[in-house]
Design goal:
Strand order of the largest sheet of chain A: 4-5-10-6-7
CATH superfamily of one domain in chain A: CO dehydrogenase flavoprotein, C-terminal domain
Structural class of chain A: alpha+beta
Number of strands of chain A: 14
Strand content of chain A: 15-25%
Number of helices of chain B: 19
Radius of gyration of chain B: 27 Å
Helix content of chain A: 25-40%
Number of strands of chain B: 28
CATH class of the largest domain in chain B: Alpha Beta
Strand content of chain B: 15-25%
Structural class of chain B: alpha+beta
Shape of chain A: globular
CATH topology of the largest domain in chain B: Aldehyde Oxidoreductase, domain 4
CATH architecture of the largest domain in chain B: 2-Layer Sandwich
Radius of gyration of chain A: 18 Å
Order of helices and strands of chain A: EHEHEEEHHHHHHEEHEEEEEEEHH
Largest sheet of chain B: 7 strands, mixed
Oligomer: heterodimer
Distance between the termini of chain B: 64 Å
Number of helices of chain A: 11
Chain lengths: 265, 789
């Protein structure tokens, strides 16, 4: 780790000011990606602004039509939340399957989204549920948020405050974990809501993306059988020592069908 | 059996210390005025080393010194020695290029140490290391094991075709003859995948020099501190043994990787005198991945000749073994003498011939890793036996039973030099079949199919050779050290006992097992016995712990020392009770005059020996302490049968290990709970190799791709089944305890059992390890395509 200045602001407003004032400042929430990166000396920020303990960013509220989750809410909190489990059980399940207990006790939803790791779980849920990301500057629709590999619509100095998830009729999530890291090799979130059917894939591409062929096939029949014949193209999918693009494409189909079975279960 | 004696499931006395965080590991040791070292390591797999400019680094805050090879050369610091000298099949010695402690002229693997920085703090040392400028001119990297002899680049000038040795064993003509008359020849070609050891505790070393006495102390993460003292003192730093103390305190796992003498140990010991401060180095996990000696990495062709009924006639094996960039301590021994002599397995195969080519590559050195040669051998034998069973349409249990060496045939001399001591192979096979309910496997397979799962079963009837011995034989084949063990039994005046052993415990539970052994034999309460290991100043000598040798060799040394204690005790007791020595019996901790109720406890005898007011001083020395050295007559040969059952999800390629039966024969067992723990851990490592772990270097650049836990897959609890573990007990006839050794069995047996099960489930001949989901999925796809045709 290189030296850096550490700040623990008392409010979001103060955090914003500190971040803007720093030469090369980074926000620290759960630190589950940032700290290992620093320990390996792969990043050299001038300042760390720790927002992990800001009470105003840690909450879960549900009103029957949507669930709002504060940006620094820990994965374990989401997984255990009675409101989330009642309103969107697939989201609670997803949160409960991220990393290991240590990661879930520290990692935050805002940190995960802002990082946009191609193998993170949350982006699949955000995209499939049609969530909205509320920042210090605006509200960003999920469809506009993920831009590429570790790249989002967030501008420098912009901080995620919360995420609001519309409550769906049905939803399911299934992932195939990369054996070593247990990150998503392929994760598929399926959702049926008043606004239609959405299918989002994580782990397979540079960032989470929607699978429109499946969405079309599921529009009239939200079942595993309806997508049996949907071919997933390996073009543009990730390939690494654990998984070729072709195998990933195949797993997208299998995980989608299993997610559907779960959503309908 | 007493509650704490031989055969009792005593809870480990060391665990309180470990589980409450009170162990003392090398990194816990901090000496007054200690400075910190870090190593600048080559980012390239193969490159010419140009100028090294450390001027800027030396001027940075807190920096005490920056050392490169030039500094070592100026001080005449030697290279890292190899502890084994193999003779090639042409009679010439192995090619043994220099292994400089810091790279000289060239770097030969990504991670090769180029410079050492010593600073007040670790962060300062790291900052300075980054400021060192090194001129590299890259050379093509030699990465592929099988391709190394044909590579355009040479890792060492001394070995222009990258071949370190060509070696053979067995009777080629006789084997060719067997193949000529065979009704069936089964063949396989495969890779025994390279593994990275990953002990929980990374390597660490603290060097300290006492100017007043001229004595050096090295604290290090070692499985054998005396061997390190010998190699480092004699070959690297020219420090005589009486001036060098090596301490291996609590060590958090070794699995072989901490047997070897590593350059960092010598460098902290040398540097601490140069800078006049104790120097500590602790590997980061990434350094462990890059620089701990790796394991396995063979490319093998095997053929088994049989008659029509499945009787084995001959076995032919050809392997290319990757040795990495430099010869690590036992590197040449592992893929030769610890490998090919095991090719008879548990069978009467009459003719065997094997050739092994050892090659240099631009990868981390490769050396012994749990099982060391024997897992590779078992994989060869048990995969080809399974293949022959399938080729001949014979039951896999039956073909094995048909060829087993029978109990009456022991001692049994194989065609590949070994003389097996004892065994009951069919008995272990029968028990394992019962444990897993082999006869109802077809039912389970049918039931799994209804759930869309492919169920498979696989056998592995392994043998291993433990406690490498005797020294004279080891020396004749090339070992540059003896392979005996030393032990001391020291009674204290009031009757408690310190047991001193040259073996080393780094997870094996010796403090418990050896205390049980001594308590049982001498009748001293278990809690009055303490076991000392891991310090060259406290222990006469020792070869350490590896190759499942500690109880068979170290325990036997203690047994001999206890015989001496009893002999002396009898003479003291005879004097105290005014009886003849030949009338004294020793039992349950007391010396008794035969046929009377006169007795003296061993504690009373010890007291008399240390407070010799009434003592035969003209005949006997005071004190009750005995030392023994034990050099075994032979290896011991644990063996057994493991059976794995798996279920494959053909849609995803996910393999679930659903059941496991292990029946092992370790001879007599001191603590069954500890032994079962060793079996469990060994199987976990074997499952790791077969299913999860695979070290990957980039073919072109030689960069380690699996350099962290993000990409190198270690087994986790949820990858493993609940094991069904049982034993047979065929005592070893040639050591006083009848024990054989249990540390490696699981890792030796498991990969073949698991791959036999997976290929059985998929109905295919072979699959590469590790059986990753994608590999299994592709095999399942191909199978589905075949079925559809």
């Amino acid at each position: 780790m290189y030296n850096f200045a550490y700040h623990r602001p008392g409010s979001l407003a103060e955090a914003e000011r500190k971040l803007k004032a720093a030469a090369d400042g980074r926000l620290l929430a759960g630190g589950q990606t940032l700290l290992p990166t620093l320990k390996q000396r792969l990043a050299k920020p001038s300042d760390l602004i720790d927002i992990g303990r800001l009470a105003e960013l840690s909450f879960i509220k549900a009103d029957g039509r949507s669930v709002q989750i504060g940006a620094t809410t820990r994965h374990a909190t989401v997984a255990a939340s009675a409101e989330v489990r009642k309103a969107i059980p697939a989201l609670a399940k997803l949160a409960g399957g991220i990393g290991d207990p240590q990661v879930r006790n520290m990692g935050t939803i805002g940190g995960s989204l802002a990082n946009s790791d191609p193998a993170a779980d949350y982006p699949a849920a955000v995209l499939a549920l049609g969530a909205t990301i509320h920042t210090t500057e605006r509200a960003i629709a999920a469809d506009d948020f993920f831009k590429g590999l570790f790249e989002t619509a967030l501008k420098p100095g912009e901080i995620i405050k919360s995420v609001s998830f519309p409550v769906p009729e049905k939803a399911g999530y299934m992932k195939f974990a990369q054996p070593a890291s247990r990150f998503c090799m392929v994760g598929v979130f399926v959702c049926k809501a008043g606004s239609g059917v959405r299918v989002a894939v994580t782990g397979a591409g540079p960032c989470a993306f929607r699978q429109s062929a499946m969405e079309k096939a599921l529009a009239s029949n939200f079942s595993a059988a309806a997508i049996e014949s949907v071919k997933v193209s390996p073009a543009g999918l990730n390939a690494d020592i654990h998984c070729s693009a072709e195998y990933r494409a195949h797993l997208v189909g299998v995980m989608a069908r299993r997610a559907l079975t779960e959503a309908n279960g | 059996m007493t509650e704490t004696g031989i055969g009792a499931r005593v809870k480990r006395k060391e665990d309180f210390r470990f589980l409450t965080g009170q162990g003392t590991y090398t990194d816990d040791i901090n000496r007054h005025g200690q400075a910190h070292a870090c190593f600048l390591r080559s980012p390239h797999a193969h490159a010419k080393l140009g100028a090294i400019n450390a001027a800027k680094a030396k001027a940075m805050p807190g920096v005490l010194a920056v050392f490169t090879h030039a500094d070592l050369a100026a001080d005449k610091v030697g290279g890292v020695p190899c502890g084994f000298g193999l003779t090639q099949k042409n009679g010439k010695p192995q090619i043994e290029p220099p292994h400089p402690a810091l790279a000289a002229g060239k770097v030969r693997y990504a991670g090769d140490a180029v410079a050492m920085v010593v600073a007040e703090t670790l962060a300062q040392a790291r900052d300075a290391a980054e400021a060192i400028e090194v001129g590299y001119s890259e050379l093509p990297a030699v990465v592929d094991t099988a391709g190394a002899p044909r590579a355009k680049s040479a890792v060492h000038d001394e070995a222009p075709n990258n071949v370190c040795f060509e070696w053979e064993i067995g009777d080629k003509a006789k084997t060719d003859e067997a193949f000529a008359k065979a009704a069936n020849v089964s063949k396989l070609e495969f890779v025994n995948n390279r593994l990275i050891p990953n002990a929980m505790e990374p390597r660490a070393a603290v060097g300290e020099y006492d100017r007043a006495t001229g004595n050096y102390t090295l604290y290090t993460t070692s499985q054998n501190p005396h061997v390190i003292r010998l190699l480092m003192g004699a070959f690297v730093l020219a420090i005589p043994e009486h001036r060098l103390r090596v301490v291996a305190p609590d060590v958090g796992g070794g699995f072989g990787s901490k047997i070897f003498h590593y350059a960092e140990e010598a460098l902290v010991t040398w540097a601490c005198r140069k800078v006049g401060r104790p120097v500590k180095w602790t590997a980061e996990r990434s350094e462990s991945f890059l620089t701990d000696a790796h394991g396995r990495d063979h490319v093998t062709k095997v053929e088994l000749a049989t008659d029509r009924e499945g009787n084995f006639l001959g076995l032919r094996v050809h392997s290319i073994a990757n040795l990495g960039a430099y010869l690590s301590t036992f590197a040449p021994m592992v893929p030769t003498w610890l490998y090919a002599p095991l090719f008879a397995g548990q069978y009467r195969t009459p003719a065997i011939h094997a050739e092994v080519i050892g090659v240099f590559t631009n990868t981390s050195p490769v050396d012994a890793y749990r099982g060391a040669g024997r897992p590779e051998a078992t994989y060869v034998v048990e995969r080809i036996v399974e293949t022959a069973a399938r080729d001949l349409k014979l039951d896999p249990a039956e073909i094995r039973r048909k060829n087993f060496i029978a109990p009456a045939q022991f001692p049994y001399t194989t065609p590949v030099v070994l003389q097996y001591d004892s065994g009951q192979y069919a008995l272990a096979m029968d028990k394992a079949c019962q444990l897993i309910d082999y006869k109802n496997f077809a039912k389970r397979k049918a039931e799994a199919e209804k759930r869309g799962r492919l169920r498979g079963i696989g056998f592995s009837a392994y043998i291993e050779a433990c406690g490498v011995a005797p020294s004279a034989v080891a020396g004749a084949i090339g070992a540059r050290a003896g392979l005996y063990e030393a032990g001391v039994i020291r009674f204290h005046p009031t009757g408690s006992v310190t047991v001193i052993t040259g073996t080393h415990s780094h997870g094996q539970g010796h403090e418990t097992t050896f205390a049980q052994l001594v308590s049982d034999r001498l009748g001293v309460p278990y809690d009055s016995i303490d076991v000392v290991h891991g310090d060259t100043d406290r222990i006469p000598f020792g070869m350490g712990t590896y190759g499942s040798r500690s109880i068979a060799v170290g325990g036997s040394a203690l047994s001999k020392a206890m015989d001496k204690i009893v002999d002396k005790g009898k003479r003291i007791a005879a004097h105290l009770m005014e009886a003849a020595v030949q009338d004294i019996e020793f039992k349950n901790g007391a010396f008794r005059v035969a046929g009377t109720d006169k007795q003296k406890t061993i504690q009373e005898v010890a007291f008399a020996a240390y407070v010799p007011h009434n003592y035969p001083l003209n005949e006997l020395e005071p004190g009750l302490e005995e030392t023994a050295y034990y050099d075994p007559a032979n290896f011991t040969y644990p063996a057994g049968t493991h059976i794995a059952e798996v279920e494959v999800d053909p849609q995803t390629g996910q393999v679930e290990v659903v059941d496991w039966a292990a029946v092992d024969d370790f001879g007599n067992v001191i603590n069954p709970m500890i032994v079962e723990g060793q079996v469990h851990g060994g199987i976990a490592q074997g499952i790791g190799q077969a299913l999860l772990e695979g070290c990957v270097y980039d073919d072109r650049s030689g960069q380690l791709v699996t350099g962290s836990y993000m990409d190198y897959c270690m087994p986790r609890a949820d990858n493993l089944p609940s094991y069904r573990v049982d034993m047979t007990h065929t005592p070893c006839p040639h050591n006083p305890l009848g024990v054989k050794g249990c540390g490696e069995a699981g890792a030796i047996a498991a990969p073949a059992a698991l791959m036999n099960a997976i290929t059985n489930a998929l109905g295919i001949k072979d699959l590469a390890m590790p059986a990753t989901p994608e590999r299994v999925w592709r095999a399942a796809q191909a199978r589905g395509a075949r079925a559809a045709e």
